[in-house]
Amino acid sequence: MWRKEPIDVLREPLRRFLQAEVNAGLLLLAAAGVAMIWANSPWNASYFALWEHELALRFDDHVLAHDLRAWINDGLMAMFFFVVGLELKRELIGGRLSMLSTAALPIAAAIGGMVFPALIYLTVVGWEGPATSGWGIPMATDIAFAVGVLVLLGDSVSTGLKLFLTTLAIVDDLGAVLVIAFFYTSDISLANLMIGFGFLAVLMGGNWLGVRTPVFYGLVGIGGLWLAFLLSGVHATV
Predict the structure, then answer these.
(1) By the 8 A CB rule, do 74 and 222 touch?
(2) Are the beta carbons of 82 and 229 closer than 8 angstroms?
């Protein structure tokens, strides 16, 4: 007879907790609260030391090393964008955004959400001087928090509004990432960028040919596309 281990007593409740969307939103807000308190406490040195802790992947003589902040921004956030992007793709193919007239509104709102904050920034700080280089800072929408707040609101928010804000946040964030890549990055590797587009073509070709093996998309997507964009200097979430 199968015997329950002590860990099993915690595993099932934890699994149910993590599967609940509302709990994911609560975890996000709680983590943000803890981070703000920690960063402004007398022990804030340990907070910044944690983010600067270096983690490395090694293969023979090849080393890929980044601090914890970079791994989260370029790695875990890429996975987050991937999951949200899949939901958006489903809506674009056969959902509420399948019609151009419906998809145009959140896309236009996202463009406005990038252009007008930049214009307001320049109007406030002036169009000349060293501070003008910060015009790209207010362009981005924090999609993780936007989705987290929507999840917390639950059924009180319509599906259409959730889809509108999610689409707006994705387009806005991708636009901001491209602005950072082309206006704030001076060491873009065109060779790695072209290699990344090559892997993207391989993935699109595999999809067109009907390849449905997760291993293929995992190896080419992570080991090829993601890594090439990471090495190119362009934010890997693209």
Answers:
(1) no
(2) no
Tokens 């002590």 correspond to 6
Residues in CB range of 199: below 8 A, 6 or more apart: 220, 221, 224, 225, 228
User: Helices 77-94 and 143-153, interaxial angle, to 10°?
Assistant: 60
The set of residues, in sequence order, having a beta carbon less than 8 Å from that of 173 and lying 6+ positions away, is 81, 140, 141, 143, 237
pTM here? 0.64
Predicted confidence pLDDT, tens digits, the chain (238 residues): 445 555 455 455 545 544 555 666 777 788 888 999 999 999 989 998 888 888 777 777 777 777 888 888 777 877 777 777 777 777 777 766 677 777 788 888 888 888 898 899 989 888 887 778 888 888 877 767 777 777 777 677 777 777 788 788 778 877 877 787 677 766 778 888 899 999 999 999 998 988 888 889 888 988 888 888 888 877 766 6
